[in-house]
Amino acid sequence: MTKLVSQIVEMIRGTVARRVSALHGPQGEWRSVFHGPPTELLIPIFDALSLDGGIAVVREDGTLVVPVLLQTERNLPANPAIGSSGECTTAHLLDLRNSPKCPLFVALIAPGNHTNLSFTSASDEFGLSGINNSGNATIQQWWQDDFIQSLVEAAISRLQLGTEKVVDEARQLVFQAVLAADEAERHDVYRAGAWRVLSRLFEIPLDPRSANLLSLACGFPPTEDGRLDAKEQVQVAARVGDFFEDIGFSLSFAVWRVF
Fold first, then answer.
1. What's CA 232's distance to the chain center, in Å?
2. Which class for 170: exposed (0-12), middle (13-18), buried (19 or more C-beta within 10 A)?
3. How far apart are CA 29 and CA 7, in angstroms?
4. Which residues does residue 55 pair with via DSSP β-bridges, in sequence order?
5. Segment 31-50, tens digit of pLDDT
6. Cα of 8 vs its chain's centroid, Å
């Protein structure tokens, strides 16, 4: 399991625990949707959350197990039984939203797949906003989403880079890497390249060279003295990009292929 997957798993567990714990009585209803990363990351997230049948929430009146459902576009032999975790179709989720037999569940939804999922007022959505995880969202809107920003902050803060100025330089480099990945993929709704940038950030080891490693993870050349200077590093990368354009490549494609 990658560190990014582990981070998201803990965030989901925490959100589910808080919201289910706040329900009144054992008959409370909470049907929710988590808008998250593309399927390549959602599958291990689902595997971790459904390992013991769902997410166990300990309350004063006992323990509730919240089923976890992974929406899929694949042809399935069958949907999971009501109240059980598993991969399921959109139609199954729509059936469950008003079913008294399944008052609790959280559905994991890949980018661009949130249409027609209108739940009751007892439900809510978390992770990315549905709008920012849709095909109509720009990469800037995706980047500015609170959930994405919380992941970026978590990835950078663990590196203990120093002052807020250094941290801000790191944020700018990550943003430029996300833009390059999005451009290389022609703004695909899944934004797999942008998610891989975030995943690489979480894999950077705690090391005196963390700043250099962050630069490399973002596809930018490190500075000679090891400091972060987003403007300078982007300019150097742009000059390299001009060279690649002369021989028929783009910088964004070159960065994407390296990683």
1. 29
2. buried
3. 26
4. 66
5. 999 999 999 999 999 999 99
6. 7
Which residues are paired to 221 by β-bridges? none
In sequence order, which residues have a C-beta less than 8 Å from that of residue 73 and are 6 or more positions away?
113
> CA-CA distance, 218 to 231, in Å (whole number)?
14
Cα separation, 196 vs 164, in Å, equals 25
- What is the pLDDT at residue 167? 94
Residue 188 CB-density burial (10 A; 0-12 exposed, 13-18 middle, 19+ buried) = middle
Indicate the pTM of the whole model: 0.88
Q: Over pLDDT 90: what percentage of the chain?
A: 60
CB 103 within 8 A of CB 28: yes
Q: Work out the angle between the directed axes of helices 192-203 and 146-157 (0-180°, nearest 10).
A: 30
Query: What's phi and psi for 22, nearest 5 deg?
Result: -85, -5
Distance of CA 163 to the CA centre of its chain: 26
> Could you tell me the CA-to-CA distances from 113 to 2, 44, 107, 130, 189 in Å, in that order?
24, 18, 11, 9, 10
DSSP 27-77: T--EEEEEE-S-HHHHHHHHHHHTTTSSEEEEETTEEEEE-EEEE--S--S
Return phi, psi of residue 124, to 5°: -150, 175
Domain assignments of the chain as residue spans, ordered by start: 3-127, 139-258
Residue in this structure with the two tokens 């150097």, named with its chain if needed: 236
Cα 124 to chain centroid distance, Å, stands at 18
The backbone torsions φ and ψ at residue 79, rounded to the nearest 5 degrees and listed phi first, read -80, 160
Q: Phi, psi (5° rounding) for residue 31?
A: -115, 120
| Token pair of 174 as six digits | 């990550």
> What does the alpha-carbon distance between residue 170 and residue 181 come to, in Å, rounded to a whole number?
17
